[in-house]
Amino acid sequence: MFANDFKKWSGLLGAKDYICGEITWIDFTVADTVQSCTLLCPKAFDGLDNLLNHQKRVWGLPELQDYFNSNRFMMHPVNGS
């Protein structure tokens, strides 16, 4: 599927917590993409644990928890549909 792209993302992230060293909009985009692609093809991230951990880290930010726990957030896989 997008295995080469995911490997590039993994290499870009490396052992850092965030892509650019501190959180930016790209981290949210990557985290959402990883979450959606994991639902569609769970094996897409085999061996790319740093991307899976990144997704959990970003979605686990304390600043997002009020939103995730509110009525405004609805977990609809893949583009909110």
How would you summarize this macromolecular structure in one to three sentences?
With 81 residues, the protein is mainly alpha-helical. Helix content is 56%, strand content 0%. The protein contains four helices and no strands.
What this model shows, in words?
With 81 residues, this protein is mainly α. The protein has a single domain (3-68), classed as Glutathione S-transferase Yfyf (Class Pi), Chain A, domain 2, CATH 1.20.1050. Helix content is 56%, strand content 0%. It contains 4 helices and no strands. It has helices at residues 3-13, 25-40, 49-59, 62-68. Helix 2 (25-40) packs across helix 3 (49-59). It is globular, with a radius of gyration of 13 Å. The model has no long low-confidence stretch (mean pLDDT 88).
